[in-house]
């Protein structure tokens, strides 16, 4: 997966970048929310990992722009020190798919990313277009259209 990381703590961002690379993903680090906002329309990423408290546009601002302005459906995980219940509820109700509170539990975060990746892979499977019945091909689309 191609993953955007919005994190202004350089040490944490590099640690997450390394973890993702080792797990077979690609990632790009953004230190400011406005830098990520400028690239959103290009659809370059499969997943967004957002910190709430970053300069120039918060992670929540980015999430709201992703969901409401651009109507994007790519998954979003918050990885942040914002740990109050109202913050978590606000992020989830605004369209976040998951929420992790710092300090980072690296294995747990990677497991959550892999769970999202599995769900994406399942939803990307093409629907069945044909069936074999008694050794003969039967066109599924014809069966659905009511043609005998």
From TrEMBL:
Chain positions found as 4-aspartylphosphate: 51
Gene3D superfamilies, sorted: 3.40.50.2300
Molecular-function annotations in GO: phosphorelay response regulator activity; transcription cis-regulatory region binding
InterPro entries registered for this protein in UniProt: CheY-like_superfamily, Sig_transdc_resp-reg_receiver, WalR-like
Gene Ontology biological process terms from the UniProt entry: regulation of DNA-templated transcription
This protein's UniProt keywords: DNA-binding, Phosphoprotein, Two-component regulatory system
Residues covered by the Response regulatory domain: 2-117
GO annotations of cellular component type: cytosol; protein-DNA complex
Name of the protein in question: Response regulator receiver domain-containing protein
Organism in which the protein naturally occurs: Jezberella montanilacus
């Amino acid at each position: 997966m191609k993953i955007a990381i919005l994190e202004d703590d350089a040490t944490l961002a590099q640690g997450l970048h390394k973890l993702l690379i080792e797990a077979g993903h690609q990632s790009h680090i953004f230190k400011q929310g406005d830098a990520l906002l400028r690239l959103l329309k290009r659809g370059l990423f499969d997943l967004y990992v957002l910190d709430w408290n970053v300069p120039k546009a918060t992670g929540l601002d980015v999430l709201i722009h992703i969901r409401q302005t651009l109507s994007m459906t790519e998954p979003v995980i918050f990885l942040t020190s914002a740990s109050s219940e109202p913050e978590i509820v606000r992020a989830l109700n605004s369209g976040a798919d998951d929420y992790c509170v710092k300090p980072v539990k690296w294995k747990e975060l990677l497991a959550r990313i892999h769970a999202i990746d599995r769900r994406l892979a399942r939803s990307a499977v093409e629907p069945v277009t044909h069936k074999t019945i008694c050794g003969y091909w039967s066109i599924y689309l014809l069966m659905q259209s009511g043609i005998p």
